[in-house]
Write a structure and sequence with these properties.
alpha/beta, Rossmann fold, 4 domains, 7-stranded mixed beta sheet, 4-stranded antiparallel beta sheet, 17 helices, 17% strand, binds adenosine-5'-triphosphate, binds magnesium ion, ATP hydrolysis activity, AAA_N_dom, Mitochondrial_chaperone_BCS1, AAA+_ATPase
């Protein structure tokens, strides 16, 4: 402790000591400036600065919009990802929507910060947009991602890859499925898709697997087949197969073949390329058109049996038909070979009303991986349609259900026909009565057709029997009835011989 009296002398001593220290430091400094070259001086300066500045605990990654001329995938993914992370505390947002987008696109505004948590790590995103320096430059956009330095490895190894994957699935969820058509008159594609070969419109088909009336087991197996297909990229690579899958949908008109294709596209968010084979002039044309389709798409060729006269394949292959359009083998070669080497995640769907009319080359195992029979409406299918169209949901019933189910299971009626009847009224009682009446009429008609069929069959059989008898008459053979020999002699009328022969055959 010092007394108040001593204070001034102590203070003056301290001051004079400081003054002499400062004077010597200035002298040393000016001497050092004289002696030490500027480069070495700046190096020493920065080293001292580094040693005596406290260590920062955070690291900031700067993610620019472009890397060189190409877009930076991390930036795009972050932009998409951060849309889902906007918190109520965010003050400014950017909102946009193009005519082709379904929903508003929301993004954070310049200078805004978004805080994210990943695996108990706090990460701060900061959006920066710098004005262009002159009229010819463009604005410079970037994200700054700041976090504690000790999580650097986790951010690089887990967080950033997670953002890329999440952004991809958000993109898929938001994707508007397109229907591509050749020379589509309503194309909304700027400049037309696929180098002008395809025009496109948004696929507005509302069909989904939920709305499709078909055997539930079959439906489940199609969905799991599609799921397996899209997640097996590595598998296809490993076994050396092209990442593609072929489906053949067959069944009578109105059983939901086209609806199933739309449901597949809506489920996978794959675009559809609807190819009219009749508009193709030659194999090279076909190749060009197919090569202009994109990955993650479904190529559809409807009514394959009618589209082209496939049976003349060999003749066309031998160039005997100089003006032939294109050949089945051209199409098959493409499916098997060319397409395999130049596309990923491709699905091809053929539809036909008559599978038995298809060229066996198309049905060969390995060509179309899955054959799906779209069949007539069943009572289960009817219930699903009643639920969709009339709101009579699962578990509920209606007094007419019993009659309708009985009629549906014994009549060949398509889901399209059932749907049409159910649309006739919003009143469930009226619509179901309409359907019951329709089914009764249909049953009467089909019984009549059955009778006619039987008559036609009988006449055909008669014709065959006549042929057999004519031959036997020619050779003088004998005909047996109930084990007893019946004479068929020359000169006997064909009619009476036939009658006895018919008895022999049908007794
Ligand atoms: N299985 C089904 N489930 C639900 N609705 C169906 C089904 N099948 C047909 N429909 C209804 O009938 C309409 C016509 O069906 P769709 O065009 O899918 O039949 P298709 O089998 O492709 O016929 P086509 O052989 O004539 O091309 C559909 O728009 C849908 O409303
Ligand atoms: Mg169809």
């Amino acid at each position: 402790m010092f007394s108040l009296k001593e204070m001034p002398s102590t203070a003056s001593t301290l001051f004079s000591a400081y003054a002499s220290f400062a004077a010597s430091m200035m002298m040393i400094r000016s001497m050092a400036n004289e002696v030490i070259p500027p480069e070495l001086r700046s190096y020493l300066n920065s080293t001292f600065h580094y040693l005596f500045t406290p260590l920062s605990s955070t690291l900031t990654l700067v993610i620019d919009e472009y890397c060189g001329m190409a877009r930076n995938q991390v930036f795009d993914s972050a932009e998409m990802y951060l849309r889902t992370k906007i918190s109520p505390t965010t003050d400014r947002l950017r909102v946009s929507k193009s005519s082709r987008q379904k929903n508003f696109a929301v993004a954070i505004e310049n200078g805004e910060e978004v805080v994210d948590r990943f695996d108990n790590v706090q990460l701060k995103w900061y959006y920066v947009c710098k004005e262009p320096k002159n009229a010819y430059a463009i604005e410079k956009r970037c994200f700054e991602l700041t976090f504690n330095k000790k999580f650097k490895d986790k951010v690089f190894e887990s967080y950033l890859p997670y953002i890329l994957v999440r952004a991809n699935s958000i993109k898929q969820e938001e994707k508007v499925v397109k229907l591509y058509n050749r020379e589509c008159p309503f194309s909304d594609e700027e400049g037309g898709g696929g180098g002008g070969m395809w025009g496109s419109i948004n696929l507005e088909h509302p069909a989904t697997f939920e709305t499709l009336a078909m055997d539930p087991e079959l439906k489940k197996s199609i969905i799991s087949d599609l799921d397996r297909f899209v997640r097996r990229k590595e598998f296809y690579k490993r076994v050396g197969r092209a990442w593609k899958r072929g489906y053949l949908l067959y069944g009578p008109p109105g059983t939901g073949k086209s609806s199933l294709i739309a449901a597949m596209a809506n489920y996978l968010k794959f675009d559809i390329y609807d190819l009219e084979l009749t508009s193709i002039y030659c194999n090279s044309d076909l190749r060009r058109i197919l090569l202009s389709t994109t990955n993650r798409s479904i190529l559809v060729i409807e009514d394959i049996d009618c589209s082209v006269e496939m049976n003349n394949r060999q003749i066309q292959d031998q160039h005997e038909l100089p003006h032939s359009k294109f050949t089945l083998s051209g199409l098959l070669n493409f499916i098997d070979g060319l397409w395999s080497s130049c596309g990923d995640e491709r699905i091809i769907v053929f539809t036909t009303n008559q599978k038995d009319r298809l060229d066996p080359a198309l049905l060969r195992p390995g060509r179309m991986d899955v054959h799906i029979n779209m069949s007539y409406c069943t009572s289960r299918g009817f219930k699903l349609l009643a639920s969709n169209y009339l709101g009579i949901h699962h578990g509920k019933s209606h007094p007419l259900y019993g009659e309708i189910e009985g009629l549906i299971d014994s009549t060949k009626v398509t889901p399209a026909e059932v749907a049409e009847e159910l649309m006739k009224s919003e009143d469930a009682n009226v619509a179901l009565q309409e359907l019951a009446n329709f089914l009764k009429r249909k049953q009467v008609e089909s019984n009549e057709i059955k009778d006619e069929d039987q008559e036609a069959k009988r006449l055909k059989t008669d014709g065959n029997v006549k042929k057999i008898v004519r031959n036997k008459l020619k050779t003088g053979e004998r005909i047996f009835r109930n084990g007893r020999r019946r004479g068929v002699r020359g000169g006997r009328s064909l009619r009476s011989a036939t009658r006895s022969a018919q008895c022999i055959i049908f007794d």
